[in-house]
Amino acid sequence: MLRRSTEHTPGSPILRNARPIDPRLLVRTPQSGMSLLLARGTPAAPRLTRQRRSALRVKRWLDVIFSALALIALAPVLVLLAMALLVAQGRPVFVGRRRLGLNGKPFLLWDFHTRDDAGPTPIGTLVRNAGLDALPQLFNILAGDMSFVGPEAHEPKIMAAGMRYEALVPYYRMRLAMRPGLVGWAQINGHTGPVRDAGSARARIDHDVAYIQNVSPLLDARIIIQTLRH
Question: Which of 75, 97, 107, 125 could form a cystine bridge with 145, CB 3.0-4.6 A?
Answer without folding.
Answer: 107
